[in-house]
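tl;dr need the bound structure. longer version: we got a ligand (T4K) that a collaborator sent over and nobodys looked at where it sits. i said id run it. heres the input, straight from their email, havent touched it
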Amino acid sequence: MDEKILVTRSSMPSYEEYIEAIKPLWDTHWLTNMGVYHHELEEKLKVYLDVPELSLMVNGHMALEMTIQAFGFPEGSEVITTPFTFISTTHAIVRNGLKPVFCDVKEEDGTIDEAKIEDLISERTVAILPVHVYGNICNVEAIEHIANKYNLRVIYDAAHAFSVAYKGKGIGNYGDASIFSFHATKVFNTIEGGAVAFREPRIYDKLYNLKNFGIRGEEIVSEVGANAKMNEFCAIMGLLNLKRTDYAIRERKKRYDFYIQCLKDVEGLRFLRQKGDATNNYAYFPVLIGEGYGKSRDELFDLLRENGIYARKYFYPLTSDQACFKNKFKNVDLKVARKLADEVMVLPLYEELKMESIERICGIINSNR
Ligand code: T4K
């Protein structure tokens, strides 16, 4: 049996480097609750992501939940969003007592179709929550225009878009807030972790309260909050990984380009495109298996599995089709999203993926049609 290849593999510093870096924790015994490494990582990420304000979180999902909560929308309000995403996006809306209104996406990049947003706006709409899926950025200008016209908030799920810049500015500068995921599977990881980037400084205090039980002093709890703090072991992992993120992205690019070179002439395959003027972080390698290819997506997926290649169907089914949400919200035509979900497969991509492995994967895709 050939070597098993998983869809991704966490980026990590060397064992020795991490052990050395966590040693001071045995002197201070200060392990969590906004420690020095938490503070240092927050400051460094602000610079790296080129954003004015940033709040670290325990993971990307809580970053999204807390951010939605921070804006204080009335219960039952509607949020226009995309179903072509990880389930976290929709859960975060629903767990805040809000209603997702699913909008279709664009065929070329999988992001929300801005031309279809206005038709979905009602008197109950309070926000738009698009996703920079696979790091492909949404049409941020058109979304801003619509949001201004109808006085809506824009919260981006930028879980996949770490380090992406658009027109020379960090992607976290667009909208009212953007959340990033630093999960072990991401381009930049803190084991588990996440952050919120935003413009209004008052949001920092609001998020601080929400992630730390609303505690503002030993005897003062100013509002109802949860616990969504990042601990010091994760912050240290982040500080070390941040130093090697540019390298990791360069290595991913080499592999991404090699995939394209190997697959570009295969009939029936299609790739999603990043918007012009935006940088790419090569977070994922999604490929669409269209009708012109001799096999269906599922047949090819199974064939790869038989050969030890663990591609993934990110993002199938649509979140709107999952049992917990099906037929519960407005029925919108999601033709394009459904087509993408039926055709998409994410192939293995990570900085240490061997070029021979890519050759092997592409060989199977090329020869078994
Ligand atoms: N919004 C969007 C658009 C998202 O995609 C996500 C997360 C979120 C919000 C929420 O952010 P977080 O709360 O997670 O920070 C994975 C990740 O768990 C999840 O973070 C990610 N999106 C989603 C797209 O993928 P699974 O269930 O596919 O992960 P799993 O455990 O099957 O791992 C996939 C592969 O990664 C494994 O085959 C091997 C590799 N891996 C995995 C782990 C756990 C490692 O190399 N190291 C590891 O520690 O969800």
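gonna send this back to them w/ a short note. The chain has eleven helices and 16 strands.
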